[in-house]
Amino acid sequence: MGVVSDGKKAYRLLRKALASRTSVQHVRRMLAAQGPHPRDHYRIAVYFADGAVNMYQMRQWYKPLAGLAERWPVVVLSRSATGAEKLIEEDGLPVAFVPTVRNLEKFLATQDIRVVLYVNQNTRNFQMFRYGRRWHVFINHGESDKMYMTTNQYKAYDYAMIAGQAARDRLSRTLWDYDLDRRTIEIGRPQADHYSGVLPYTPDDRTVVLYAPTWEGDRPSAHYGSIASHGETLVRGLLATGRHRVIYRPHPRSGVVNAEYGAAHRRILAAIDAANSADAAAQHVYDDGPDLGWQLAAADVAIVDISAMVYDRLAAGKPLLITRPADERASIDTKGYLSACEWLTVEGAADIVGEVERVRADDEAVDRLRTWVQHYFGDTAPGVATAKFHAAIERLMAEWDDWHGRDLERGVSDDEDDDDEDGDD
Amino acid sequence: MDAITDAKKAYRLLERAIATRSARQRVRQTLATRPPHPSGRFRIAVYFADTDVNIYQIRQWYRPLQAIADRHPVVVLSRSPRGAEALLDDAELPVAYVPRIDELEAFLAAQDIRVVLYVNQNTRNFQMFRYGRRWHVFINHGESDKVYMASNQYKAYDYAMIAGDAARDRLAEALWDYDVDARTLQIGRPQADHFAGTVPYEPDDRTVVLYAPTWEGDRASMAYGSVASHGVALVERLLATGRHRVIYRPHPRTGVMEDAYGAASRRIVSMIEAANAADPTAQHVFDDGPEIGWQLVAADVAIMDVSAMIYDRLATGRPLMVTRPASDEAAIDRTGYLSDCEWLDAHTVADIDDEIERVRVDDGATARLRRWSTRYFGDTAPGAATARFEAAIEWLMDTWERQRERQDAAS
Q1: What is the interface pTM, i.e. ipTM, of the complex?
Q2: Domains of chain B, CATH where assigned
Q3: What does the angle CA A173 – CA B73 – CA B93 come to, to the nearest 5 degrees?
């Protein structure tokens, strides 16, 4: 038994080593074909130590960073081969593949990187913190009320860019001895200014309803998925009016754990097909594309499950309904937006047309939405978050100039680093 | 060629994986025979994610930590099987083996850890930073003028305990926007208050000289080793006086790169043996023991190469000389103590007994030593650093209480 599992482990290790070697070579070939990075060109680096699996964390920043790069050239420092492969393939930003500390230092020595941005809390971020005389700034990959949003790791960065007042309150409740006013910069959600993708229909008088449910979840506390409980009823209700257009965007994992959930999803697809065949002008959409953005901006009303999608929609500043989980064991945050959102219950799904009208027209609902949007994201008028993001970077660059000037006056120069490698197992 | 490197690499990976796996099993077996840690017992954790290779970094803290453990129980959080194995072998502090995050979290949930101490900058320290409502404090594993001593990673901790003004100025110069006064606590070197080991001779009138050279190095810029250039002649001279006792403590890597260097060291060892055979009361010592401490404190004068050892000696506030590397290529820091230390040149070794007298009694030399040792370590009187370390821990515990009260009042 010991021998067998050793053999298996050995095989797995070998396979992993070979796969990673193949990706490394592939990445190096792709980058070689692009030619070397111009020396002393970049001013901002985005440090990304994750693999391809978490690329969504990076992807949502491509457009805001590409906009920024016109003024301050931006490069992604990628530490993992599968991550680098994906980054190069997606071609959102220039990529430096620096898997070892030596590679990283060599690259840093040829560039004048003044601000390093981090989109997640990867353990290896700590390796990058060695390099001072530049700002390390956490920009995260979304706003929500999850625990991740208040990790004590915030304190390890020079600055954190946060969405708004809700994030401030959350951090001030949680972190000890953290000077929020000095160390956080509010920027809203600049991603929301860059909605990616093109509308797959011609706009007309129909009220556009985005229904974006999550999957069924693998434990009771995560039973947020509404496809079986709400989805069929509400989609059928909307398809029947002739005054609505449905954009149906289910989570890609829908049905993986629960066959009945998958079946309900397929019945919704069939209903959409049938409605489009009956009236081609209806232009209902089944959306399984990679782009996320146009749906959030285009929909007059969104119906979403408890998930990051809630906050992405909130950032658009437009009406939304949250499905109330049918399973009472599903855990629901009681402090943030979910404590006062517009719930769509299972019974409410039967009167979906009335509910959609209510959140659009009811003064109280509209007011409440405005208050919460303001609380999480500040001013959501188009372009405002982008302007705040750019202003934040300008401020960091100005502070960089200040501190660099002080170094020059004192005659301080950069030291060579000595080799203190970790003894990780 | 590629296939061979691959096979070699794979073999090495495998070998490492198997060694780690068997260490893991041994650690789990050892711990299985012991009662679990009582819950709610510990207040201070030392986070150690390194392997046995860097165990010296935590070993030097055992005694200072044992001294505070009565008041604030201390546990080591070990993340690596080979590190845990070495810690369990040492059996100096309680060890919690928590390689996985869920184990770490379960342990933290069962304990009331208010201060987490870090002795190095292991990448995985970052995983521990997740847990707030406690202080994360860097205590390092020695003082020197290396770049490591001013890593920008200092900023990631709530506080750092540092040796003295030299460290303070170094950090102030290197780190941007770091409030050194608010975030550092000067404690000197409490390790120096705890003698490790026992003196292996009967003290008498002889002047005790510790000669602790480093190895030959593997690059020209690291050629600090003095065994061949200074060592043979200086030991020969000291053995001949009848008024000195030599403690010879060469670096364990001595001779690995260069045969002649190893041969010089062997010559020194045999000269010592011959001297002891001729006069057993001389009691010269060839010291290759695991413990470092008694030598630094017991020697009247120390002769050392450019290395971390210099700062360990400086922490005792007692006289030392630094051998000037024979090679011009050896890199020497020009800002700190080395810019103003007592150099021992190879050509002055013939006058070693005069040199020793000079650094012991010359007013200029003793004043210089006092100035530098105060600059690096503050008050080096026995017990002073320990008192400051303990006061720093008390201060952290007090601020912990105050933060806790503030938080309770807010919620």
Answers
A1: 0.90
A2: 26-188 (3.40.50.11720), 207-377 (3.40.50.2000)
A3: 125
